[in-house]
UniProtKB/TrEMBL annotation:
Domain of life: Bacteria
Domain annotation CTP synthase N-terminal: ranges: 6-270
Gene: pyrG
UniProt lineage: Bacteria, Pseudomonadati, Bacteroidota, Cytophagia, Cytophagales
Annotated source species: Belliella aquatica
Active site per the UniProt annotation: 385, 511, 513
Gene3D superfamilies: 3.40.50.880, P-loop containing nucleotide triphosphate hydrolases (3.40.50.300)
Name this polypeptide is given: CTP synthase
EC number: 6.3.4.2
């Protein structure tokens, strides 16, 4: 490989959910602070082409990039930490790799050869490993390998990592293995054996990790570090402790304290391009940890049993809360448990309510009742995607008196389809990757709450939905107090609605949460929090 890009691979062992994504993002942040351009990519071992068709209950949120890729939620962490956009190339699944190889086979590109896992699948994996590096925009590409070492599914990825070392050569290639050091309360001991076994598994696959990052509830004593170094064949100073943190945003600083960035740079022969600049990050943490006020916000949705389903929204509140020096207590409320009777008790003490994105009919009536309550009681409201659509349905039913108004997603035969499918969505039969996805332009009307939040009229926001505001109802709605404050300039689709005579009632057809980062909190979240603070004062 001719490129001068350095490649870091992060594997995981012992258990899943150790936070490889956060470690990858933290390391990338530290390298970015040393002046390097860094990107992170994730290779997932499942067979879906992308996570767009996965149930959020099972896999958490589907994160959407500028170019409209439906990706793993870890890409959200990468963008939130680095403040740089990712793309389709940053998230590859086994399904996509096989799909590419089989498509090539059908085209006859393998010239009569028997197509096999090695070398054809592993070559395709490596082609994708190196793709972002070859564009010449990055000094460092960090690749997170999903799953655990030893899983049948991840074997081809691990084999490709082994081979990549020989393609890339000395000083250009590094493996970091993330493991768990469990604490046995009865023995009062931190145990290294699971890590030893997991490193053995890596060694069996021909990979010697260069650095161990050890998740632990307690600080690792020197003798535990020594034992790990000895048995796992790594340098003592490359056994890095990763203590449980109060917030994921502490992890870059914890990793800095452990000198993870220095170890990586010395192994890859990288010399820093600028002085470490984490001042803004520290400033954010300072505000996050020292709020001067707090608000209670309810997030109404149907996937509340797995908060990861709302990952980007939850993180967007952390970013916007910190900049406002305001602690946001976010309560997840199941829309299925909401009814006209239970709503006053559940919502009246909240300073603001968000209705979340979602799909399908379940819980819809509870969401509609929630919107009615906050509209009538002047409680700040923020509707996101389906949440905006619900606000439109509620307004049509209870203000315009169209009692049967609905979205055609919920009732295809509704006589009043205030939310419906666009022509280009009507004949779609393949579900994967066919929604309105990615970044679209939106023009804001001056004097509206949306304009006030952004402070400009031309914006770009990311989408992930099929259904749209039905413009046939726009003039009637406007006459009754709705303001279409954001419009797509090319298609005239309504992207934002608000209610004029309400302290803060805003619904966005797009997903603002995908663009919120630590250093660039999203203006709609910031303004919504401001409105909740003001609402609280009036109580
Ligand atoms: N189900 C709605 C649609 O497809 C909203 C999607 C969403 O909230 N992301 O239009």
């Amino acid at each position: 490989m001719a490129s001068s890009t350095k490649f870091i691979f992060i594997t995981g062992g012992v258990t899943s959910s150790l936070g490889k994504g956060i470690i990858a993002a933290s390391l990338a942040k530290l390298l970015q602070a040393k002046g390097f351009s860094v990107t992170i990519q994730k290779f997932d071992p499942y067979l879906n082409i992308d996570p767009g068709t996965l149930n959020p209950y099972e896999h958490g949120e589907c994160y959407v990039t500028e170019d409209g890729a439906e990706t793993d939620l870890d890409l959200g962490h990468y963008e939130r930490f680095l403040d740089t956009p990712t793309s389709q190339a940053n998230n590859i699944t086994t399904g996509r790799i096989y799909n590419n190889v089989i498509t090539k086979e059908r085209k006859g590109e393998y010239l009569g050869k028997t197509v096999q896992v090695i070398p054809h699948i592993t070559d395709e994996i490596k082609r994708n490993f190196f793709k972002l590096g070859e564009e010449g925009n990055f000094d460092v590409v960090i690749t997170e390998i999903g799953g655990c070492v030893g899983d049948i599914e991840s074997l081809p990825f691990i084999e490709a990592v082994r081979q990549a070392k020989w393609d890339l050569g000395q000083n250009n290639f590094l493996v970091i293995h993330l493991t768990l050091i469990p604490y046995l309360a009865a023995a009062k001991e931190l145990k290294t054996k699971p890590t030893q076994h997991s490193v053995k598994q890596l060694l069996e696959a021909g990979i010697q990790p260069d650095i161990l990052v050890c998740r632990t509830e307690y600080s690792l004593p020197q003798e535990v570090k020594k034992k790990l170094a000895l048995f796992c064949n790594v340098q003592l100073n490359c056994v890095i402790e990763a203590m449980d943190a109060d917030t994921i945003y502490d992890v870059p600083l914890l990793m800095k304290k452990e000198k993870l960035d220095e170890r990586v740079m010395s192994k890859l022969k990288l010399t820093s391009k600028s002085n470490t600049d984490l001042e803004q990050w520290k400033d954010f943490l300072g505000k996050l940890k020292n709020p001067t006020q707090e608000v209670n916000i309810g997030l109404v949705g149907k996937y509340v049993s797995l908060p990861d389903a709302y990952k980007s929204i939850i993180e967007a509140f952390i970013h916007a809360g910190a900049v406002s020096e305001c602690k946001v207590n976010l309560t997840l409320i199941s829309s299925e448990e909401l009814s006209a009777d239970s709503i006053p008790k559940k919502l009246e003490n909240l300073d603001g309510v968000v209705v979340a994105p979602g799909f399908g009919e379940r819980g819809l009536e509870g969401k509609i009742e929630a919107v009615r309550f906050v509209r009538e009681n002047n409680i700040p409201f923020f509707g996101i995607c389906l949440g905006m659509q619900v606000a439109v349905i509620e307004f049509a039913r209870n203000v315009l008196g169209l009692k049967d108004a609905n979205s055609t997603e919920m009732d295809p035969n509704t006589p009043n389809p205030v939310i419906g499918l666009m022509e280009d969505q009507k004949n779609i039969e393949i579900m994967g990757g066919t929604m309105r996805l990615g970044s679209y332009a939106c023009e804001l009307k001056k004097g509206t709450k949306a304009y006030q939040a952004y402070g400009k009229s031309k914006i770009q926001e990311r989408h992930r939905h099929r259904y749209e505001f039905n413009n046939a109802y726009l003039s009637k709605m406007e006459a009754a107090g709705i303001v279409a404050s954001g419009i797509n300039p090319e298609t005239q689709l309504v992207e934002i609605i608000e209610i004029k005579d309400h302290p803060w009632f805003v619904g966005a057809q797009f997903h603002p949460e995908y663009k919120s980062t630590v250093l660039t909190p999203h203006p709609l979240f910031v303004r919504f929090i401001k409105a909740t603070i003001e609402n609280k004062k009036t109580k």
